[in-house]
Amino acid sequence: MHVFGIVVWLGGLMFQSAVAAPIIQFEGELAKAAMRKVHKRFVAFVWMSAWTMLITGVLLMLLNPRFVWFRYQDRWSVLLASKQLIFVLMMFYAFGYARMLKYLETPSSNGGFNEKAELYRRRLDQFRKISIVLGIAALLLAAAMQVYG
Ligand code: HEM
Questions:
Q1: Which of 46, 73, 74, 141 is most buried, by CB atoms within 10 Å?
Q2: With a 6 A CB cut-off, is 60 part of the ligand 1 pocket?
Q3: Three-state SS for 114?
Q4: pLDDT level of residue 142 (50, 70, 90 thresholds)
Q5: How far, in Å, CA of 138 to CA of 136, rounded?
Q6: What is the rounded distance in angstroms from the CA atom of residue 7 to the CA atom of residue 105?
Q7: Longest C-alpha distance within the chain, in Å?
Q8: Segment 110-137, tens digit of pLDDT
Q9: Shortest CA distance to 48 belongs to which of 15, 5, 87?
Q10: Best of 54, 55, 60 to mutate for ligand 1, by most ligand atoms within 8 A of CB?
Q11: What is the pLDDT of residue 107?
Q12: Is the Cβ atom of 85 under 6 angstroms away from ligand 1?
């Protein structure tokens, strides 16, 4: 379940950024409106993945004999703490992403040229790309936990 959480989260972000967005940006308003609905629906999957990863991560941590509260005395604990920090950062960007999506749904953001909406559309793309890089970094840390831990 822990790994499934990041597969859904990271996989969805990569699909949106690498497959859907490059096509939709050259399509009409109808396609862009449909894509906003896709983004909004995906946010629910992000929260499901995040909760799944947090609960399973805490369980894996508490059941692991190497885990000692607030002690980062070995490589495994330092790698785990770094991964948890990345998770917090990914949650921060997920909240920002959801808030901007909400704003982009408001009628005022879609009526004519709206500087704030344009900024938010660019930010959404940036937040997605930052989250993808963070997710890949966390996966590498998880692999290092298995190898060096
Ligand atoms: C974006 C964040 C995260 C990613 C990508 C991630 C990914 C992974 C992966 C791929 C594994 C290896 C599973 C295996 O081979 O058995 C793993 C194990 C683990 N994860 Fe995470 N995880 C993340 C966040 C967290 C968080 C927030 C916690 C704790 C609250 C956590 C705790 C653990 C623990 C304790 C293990 C088992 C390590 C071991 O057996 O040596 N992870 N994680």
A1: 46
A2: yes
A3: coil
A4: very high
A5: 5
A6: 27
A7: 59
A8: 555 567 777 888 889 999 999 999 999 9
A9: 5
A10: 60
A11: 66
A12: no
Tell me how far the alpha carbon of residue 84 lies from the centroid of ligand 1, in angstroms.
9
Q: What is the DSSP letter of 3?
A: H
Q: Report pLDDT digits (tens) over 29-82.
A: 888 889 888 999 999 999 999 999 999 999 999 999 888 877 778 889 999 999
Contact 141, 6 (CB under 8 A): no
Q: Are 42 and 8 in contact (CB under 8 A)?
A: no
Q: Read off the tokens for 128.
A: 């997605």
With beta carbons less than 8 A apart as the criterion, state whether 74 and 66 touch: yes
Integer CA distances (angstroms), 138 to 68, 83, 133, in order: 21, 5, 9
Q: Ligand 1, closest atom to CA 6?
A: 5
